[in-house]
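Repro case for the chain-ordering regression, as requested:
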Amino acid sequence: MARTDVNTLGEFGLIEHLTRNFPIVQPETLKGVGDDAAVIDNGTHLTVVSTDMLVEGIHFDLAYTPLKHLGYKAVAVNLSDIYAMNAFPKQITVSIALSNRFSVEALEELYAGIHAACETYQVDLVGGDTTSSPKGLVISVTAIGQGDRDLLCYRSGAQVGDLICITGDLGAAYLGLQILEREKQLWQENPQIQPDLENQKYVIGRQLKPEARRDVVEIFRKINLKPTSMIDISDGLASEVFHICKQSKVGALIEESGVPIHPEAEMLALKFKLDPITCALNGGEDYELLFTIRPEDVDLIRFLPEIYIAGEILDAKDGIKLNTKGGNLHALKAQGWVHF
Amino acid sequence: MARTDVNTLGEFGLIEHLTRNFPIVQPETLKGVGDDAAVIDNGTHLTVVSTDMLVEGIHFDLAYTPLKHLGYKAVAVNLSDIYAMNAFPKQITVSIALSNRFSVEALEELYAGIHAACETYQVDLVGGDTTSSPKGLVISVTAIGQGDRDLLCYRSGAQVGDLICITGDLGAAYLGLQILEREKQLWQENPQIQPDLENQKYVIGRQLKPEARRDVVEIFRKINLKPTSMIDISDGLASEVFHICKQSKVGALIEESGVPIHPEAEMLALKFKLDPITCALNGGEDYELLFTIRPEDVDLIRFLPEIYIAGEILDAKDGIKLNTKGGNLHALKAQGWVHF
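-- result from build under test --
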């Protein structure tokens, strides 16, 4: 029997490959695999469903991740997918597999974080599964949200001439991870050393306790704005721009000068000898929103805090490009996170 | 910090303990943790959500489980929870974490099984996550179903005098597992030995490829029967009777002579020096339905194939009892499956 390594396809390629022959047979299923969330027609409302799996040693490292933060993050990153549909999460299920090295007290910490996230975002924990694993901790969260038929945003709605917008700043979560990884390594080499987190509270907070942009979706309602497309920035800006362009069948121009980077992230990137824009484009785990708006809607967002215009949707034949601060046009490359 | 071992609470105790402080804040959430599925009010319909996590080395052993069967079973056991609400599943999400020992071809096998289950039960695969794991395979399935407000069955509806009914036979899946485990051990001791499955196709099929009882829920619709309570038999009859009794605040009498056991399972149990009724009560993984009906509805089911009357709901003060074939009354004990 042939043996093809899974990493030859990449994460998205693999999902596409495995699910290509699955038909949609239920008339209520409006959207299956391929957006931030699935969409189900329930008559009065649309139900929006998203799911994520977090695996110890792949998505998190308990050497520097407090269990409470982990619980919070596991929920927040999932809700982020629901907000990215321009919908509001209402319920979650949380399934956990854990080895016997975890005590009831450790689980209570994890659930305290899940509880805090449920409170912050006003979602109900309605189910789940708790089982043992031979090794390590696995968390699977499914979020269920409610959306209005006329307001839901897909990845596929961007049109030529639309403006590309970003909420909040990018790259900081990735730099937070770099600090935590460096300190872990130093500590492993010499357990006497106390971690030096350099008062980098901002970037470490972005890594360990990200928030989903519920506030932004609420603002959209208040100012009566419906983005033409939206996606959450979980794998780095570049990867998300590629998703929007692929599904909207368009190209894009990103202005480096328009990509928001926090001053602390910028300084830290230079210290790590990394290009700050690379951290923003390919770092991931920011959980901000990337959305596009019609040019005539620009006045609605121009003076809003934490919303940045970072580029424009182009014709597909123009490709996906980055205009650097130095004025050079590069083809944008999407690395995303390679887990395999 | 105190350290309490998770197995001191048991699986159900642990879930109860961890989720006891989670309030329900969304008005649409009709039922959270504690039944086969959560229930969400969507106006015209009720949405029913259930989730399960299957972990290699805990819930399945790839030494004797073909990946295609595993994919089928992972879906079927989840749908069983939706049918147990007297509702019909419509969509599923499937998340998978796997180590690099799995090839694309192996995953294709797994997804072929998921595909077959989607086809059998007419559900749409609408999302999921595929990620790597340091070791082993983890599958998390969430099923979303649709139910009628007036027809949904909870664990809490059984009333004194109701008849306790079972679909299909019990214990065979557990005996199938015993054969597979025995052959694995023999094979590990001597890899030259060909497995001797003794033509035990029935019990092995019950273990490796269980079906969810969609047909029974369809029959309920046709004969216009609404059970007063229902649960799927995943952890053995005894454990499920306890769930019904606890949530309905009643007692129960189970007649050993009324518990259906397949002749092949019965013979095999004796060969393994196991009491057949113990296999039925505590074996688990049968994925049949346990339901209760009002005594005046008995004529609706009396002549249906594969529906057995196995006892009666008693007052809570009468406890939960088994009347053996020999005419002795025992207190029923629920072991369920202990994973920790």
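Ordering looks correct now. The radius of gyration of chain B is 20 Å.
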